[in-house]
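This section describes the prediction task in plain terms. A model, or a person checking by hand, is given the sequence of a single protein chain and must write out its three-dimensional structure as a string of tokens. No templates, partner chains or ligands are provided. The sample shown here is typical of the held-out split.
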Amino acid sequence: MGGNREIELKLRLADASRWREVMAWAAENGLADVQAWRHEILEAQYFDTKERDLQQARLAYRIRCENGKCIAAVKGGGSAAGGLHQRSEWEVEIDAPDSLVTTFAGTPVGKELAELVGDKPLEMLFSTRFDRHAAMLRPDVATAIELVIDRGAIIAGDKQEPIQEIELELKSGSLPVLLDLAADLAARVPLLFEERSKYHRGLVLAGLERQPPKKKPAPAAAPGQTDGGARRLLIEALHGVLKWQTRLLTDSAASENLHRLRVKLRRLRALLAFFRPLLPEEECTAFQQELREWSRLFGPVRDIDVLLEAWQAMIASGALALRGQQWLIAVLSDERAARMQTIMPELARGSATPMFLRLWSWLETALADVGGCRQFIVKRAGEWMQDMLEFGKAPDFADMDVLHRLRIEGKKLRYCLDTVELPGVPAEDLIEKLKKMQDALGFLRDARSTAATLNALLAGKSSRALHREAGLLIGWQARGAYERRESAFKTWRKVRRRLNRLLQAYL
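The expected answer:
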């Protein structure tokens, strides 16, 4: 009988056939030779009541057979972000399936199980069967990490989903060492972040997934808190990137997934810039460059998504009533699919996984101790607001390059204010106005780029109907740009007034 707190990083093999390379990597780095690996064939069944009481309580009950023994386990609570799973686990060796409540009566979770389940019968939800190769790695004297390779399937009725996972469980030592080790492995074997547990994947496969309860947002860095607040915000921003990268891999046709991934990348870069004085300069610059290059990978597809969205907005406005075939939609959709085919292989083989793992490890240790995050946030936010006021003293709203820079600076400020919060000073009104200005300036930029993008895309195409539709879209956006320019100017004046009031409250 035992209970412990699991901390494990789950990664997915981008190419299931390369699992033996994981073992070769461990041997080459002196971490585990051939004899160090143990091999098991594991079968497990997951259970719950008919009413799904355990699932509602965020608990999972599993019976797994291994090496001629049956192990009953309850897992629950915890979190999963960026592939890092942290949860409580209680295990009991059993001779035969018995009452859940009786089995775990002597554990810390026993009372909760008795209240949740009582004498209700349990039913099997789904099962798993997989080969496991595992070895204990000791990269240094203070660290023990169990490296596991699982290959098999989740089975729910007549449905199956493959298991091709790598798990690194931290038995002792520090998280940065585990992350560095994983980055080294991901540089050798293509890996992707796996945010879902086998249990969650099984629920989805069996059609039993329920909407998880909404998590309360964590508070911003509290007065007197040291660098932990900044570290948490940066790592949460990184986890946001990983989450939407996974969603894009799952559904690359959904433009929202691509858009959200790009937004999360920008937010992470903005926060790195905000906290830059606390970070080692050289490494921060290098990571910013890598993130910028990764963001650019998605730019060409997003350009087509913008045109598709503009076309749909034009039709929805009622400005035109087109009948029959819409030729431009077909051309844009084909172009989007072609561009996605050029970037998805890069995404699917986990090209950025080593970089993200290195960045995560670096953020865990790199932040300087400033003796209180509140004072830094106040000072840094004040500097950014003053910089924006200085730049926008008299912006030329006829110069698109100036407006583009104003939009970028406003976006960076909004992302940071929306994340760090200004201690004691409400900034919701400023955030809302910055968003409104960003939208208006974004429309102006899109309107300017539409003609150039369409001209390049339609060069050599002789369809009169196609060029007519392109002309209609260019004209509709030009008309909208005329209206948005005045709106952006008025909103900027409101932003200026709000910035001045906030700075007075600070200073």
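For orientation: Residues 140 and 173 are 9 Å apart (CA to CA).
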